[in-house]
Amino acid sequence: MIKRRYDKSPLSFEEQLALIKKRGLTVEDDAKALSYLQAISYYRLSAYFLPYQKQKDQFNHGTTFKQIIRTYTFDRELRLLVFDCIDRIEVAIRTQFIYSMSLTYNDTHWHDKKAYFVNPYYNKIGMLVDPYSDFQAIISRAKTAQRPEVFIKHYMDTYDRPSNPPSWMCLELLTIGELSHIYRGLADNRDKKRIADFFDVHHKVFTSWLHTLTYVRNICAHHSRLWNRDLAIVPDRIIKAKGPWLETTFENNKRVFYFLSILKYLLNRANSGNHLKNKIEALFNKYPTVPIQFLGIPSDEHGNLLDWKEQPLWKHTTT
Description:
The protein has helices at 13-22, 30-40, 42-46, 65-104, 131-144, 150-158, 167-170, 176-184, 189-197, 203-221, 256-270, 276-286, 312-315, and strands at 121-122, 128-129.
């Protein structure tokens, strides 16, 4: 591919508005549109243009600026919903991690034993992977912080040995990405299996899902687009689900609906009384003009959207 020099000039907000009008977008209120461009930015909004353009840089007839903003707002509310689900699942994973390892080995400080972790190795891009040392470094930074967490300070002020706090304190220091890294770094697959069994997932699939949970969590935290996205970190498919799952037609694991189904599956174990289905249905109903097929919800041969609510996973009622 022949590359060329980037030579686009910056545009004022008024010029940005004139450009999208020239490209066929109907703008009902110029002042309001300008206020959105000033608050959100043209570049961020432009990510929501593509599904409304059959021809590049030309909006489909009848597309309005209001519809673009509705789509943007839908995506924002979807991210908030997903972020909340990941938060709940993260807490459950952390709990099972602590419980399983501590009771299996009858050891409050298993995290300080190298034997429970894989030996350091270099990955495909030449980076050193050393989960044990990484975990110890996180704990050390927490202990020497200028303003340590209250529970870390209490331990350091009260006890002089072991030098590190117990696992239920130290795992609270981990982000979900670090939690994923430490889980992947366990040396014995039986340890991984005990944790994953709580969620009725094979430990290899669970490892993959943790990685994707971290990735999507970061998308939400950085206010990036979730709607109409191919997942850069694709979660593994379940081969034999232990609970109600999806039919093959819905198993496009590169799209966001599959990830929403992962959230539902995990929440059914971590919080059986969850209302994720109702919340998603309410969100879809609130924005009826937003094309939800771009989440990865399939259509039949006539182009009619299939009913996701009738899938075994989403139809199943937990108690």
